[in-house]
Amino acid sequence: MAGTARQFQAENVDVCLVNNQGELAAVNNWCPHRQGPLAEGWIEEGRIVCPWHAWGFDLRTGECLEENSRVAVYALKQQGDEVLIELPAE
Ligand code: FES
Question: Which DSSP helix (H) or strand (E) runs through 29?
Fold first, then answer.
């Protein structure tokens, strides 16, 4: 399996946390196309792929190769068993 994705809530933001072969990444859970749930998608070649229409978003940059679009990527760090996610200031 290339990786796993799960949805979490961090404050009021729905985050899709991806484990891509041991490398963690955090992106906004809602696809910018039509709000598909990215955590229900799959990981392929360093991208999270939306389950609804298969747009893929780079896990480092958030960029979509198929369309002129991007999803928010959040910085994260691990502290022991916890994953801390840096959300944008409101
Ligand atoms: S809703 Fe994600 S590709 Fe359409």
Answer: none
Structure pTM? 0.93
The residue nearest atom 3 of ligand 1, judged by CA position, is 53
Whether 70 is in the pocket of ligand 1, judged by its Cβ within 6 Å, is no
Q: Which atom of ligand 1 is nearest to the CA of 54?
A: 3
What's the CATH number where 32 sits?
2.102.10.10
Q: Which of 54, 23, 24, 22 is nearest to 38 (CA)?
A: 54
> What's the pLDDT tens digit per position in 4-26?
999 999 999 999 999 999 999 99
Ligand 1 centroid – CA 27 distance (Å): 15
Identify the domain containing residue 42 by its residue range.
Answer: 4-86
Domains held by the chain: number: 1
